Amino acid sequence: MSNKLKVGVLGATGMVGQRFVSLLEEHPWFEVTTIAASPRSAGKTYAEAVNGRWKMEKPVPNAVKDLIVLDVNDVAKVASQVDFVFSAVSMAKDEIKKIEEAYAKAEVPVVSNNSAHRWTPDVPMVIPEINPEHFEVIKYQKERLGTTKGFIAVKPNCSIQSYAPALSAWMQFEPYEVIASTYQAISGAGKTFNDWPEMIGNVIPFISGEEEKSEKEPLRIWGHVDSKKHAIIPAQSPVITSQCIRVPILYGHTATAFVKFRQNPTKKDLITALENYRGLPQKLNLPSAPKQFIQYMQEEDRPQVAKDVNFENGMGISIGRLRKDSLFDWKFVGLSHNTARGAAGGAVLCAELLKAQGYIN
Fold first, then answer.
1. Secondary structure (DSSP) of 155-197
2. How far apart are CA 358 and CA 361, in angstroms?
3. Residue 226 has what pLDDT?
4. What average pLDDT score do residues 76-80 get?
5. Helix, strand and coil percent figures for the chain, each rounded to 5
6. pLDDT band at residue 1 under the 50/70/90 scheme
């Protein structure tokens, strides 16, 4: 019998759910034993449910093809079969909040890709290399929910991971004003070019809600746990303003950023800080952790989506074109894989850290 933790994937038929299933195919710690989705998919095998809708590069893993899809709303049944769940459900935000909390109250840890609980004060929103200490707020969340094992943890918006890691590496130089514009792949909307042919050769200068997320979510990541308020208190600086644009790319979010610093770092200082930046996942050698979290690319035309999006299996961040700016101090270009590091892969890494720290067992 396998000693791996039994994992359920909520919303497993959608694009992010499929990415979870694909990433977990040969995971050394976790095994997908339960698939849950909307009532219209319930009762089918997973292969039947995603027939004609499978969007991953690799075929449906053999281990899950014949799993019978459960109704995601049947919380008790799903909860009885798993040690924890990944959530990628596609519902209205209030419905997501309700169902994720229902699983947590059923004593099932929930590691969510969704945005619904990112601003719930006692729910940690974590990039494992940057703010793992925010998991400490889980003890207060359990008190509120009345649980011993169940809780919710979330990962942040996919696009901020193309620039926030660089700013995190540079905190010693005190960045205080940032302009960050993101150029986001269509898979961030759960689409392929087959689903969204009007994106071929097109650019759409609007993505609902993205600019607010881009400006505010990094501040929550850089915040702190307040033991009196039982909450994450966001940082006040650096102030970020953002524009977010949809571009005709399948995978990979690119960012251009301009930064003002209170200190006066040199280019060498900034590059060294990027290349030396390590987090707890690297120290613990977690299965999904990139060996090199951030790479700096010296070529003047890098990073490029076609060449660099899969750096460290899509879990690493690529930074390039660091140069002096005439209005701000420095500017750079960043790139991250939006469905690996930015979505399912980032959530898997969160779950690995939660297991390593004893929150999931």
1. ---SGGGGTHHHHHHTGGG-EEEEEEEEEE-GGGGT--TTT-G
2. 6
3. 98
4. 98
5. 30, 25, 45
6. very low
* 233 CB neighbour count, 10 Å cutoff: 13
CA proximity to 112, closest of 125, 102, 122, 121:
125
**Structural domains of the chain, with CATH:** 5-157+344-356 (3.40.50.720), 159-337 (3.30.360.10)
Q: Is 350 a catalytic residue?
A: no
Does the structure show a pLDDT above 80 at 71?
yes
**134, 253, 337, 350: which is the annotated catalytic residue?**
253
Does residue 356 have a pLDDT over 70? Answer: yes
DSSP-derived 3-state class of residue 340: helix
Question: Does the annotation count 244 as an active-site position?
Answer: no
Number of residues that this document lists for the chain: 361
Please identify which of the residues 158, 244, 337, 350 carries the catalytic annotation.
Answer: 158
pLDDT in tens, 162-178: 999 999 999 999 999 99
In this structure, what is the dihedral angle of CA atoms 336, 341, 344, 349, given to the nearest 10 degrees? -170
Residue 350's identity, in one-letter code, is: C
User: What pTM was estimated for this model as a whole?
Assistant: 0.97
Instruction: For residue range 15-49, list pLDDT tens digits in order.
Output: 999 999 999 999 999 999 999 999 999 999 999 99
Query: How far is the C-alpha of 136 from the C-alpha of 310, rounded, in Å?
Result: 32
Instruction: Report helix, strand or coil for 292.
Output: coil
Q: What is the DSSP letter of 38?
A: -
User: What would the pLDDT profile of 193-227 be if each residue is shown by its tens digit?
Assistant: 999 999 999 999 999 999 999 999 999 999 999 99
CA 20, 25, 26, 30 torsion-angle sign: positive
Please give the C-alpha separations between residue 254 and each of 132, 159, 297, in angstroms, as whole numbers.
25, 8, 14
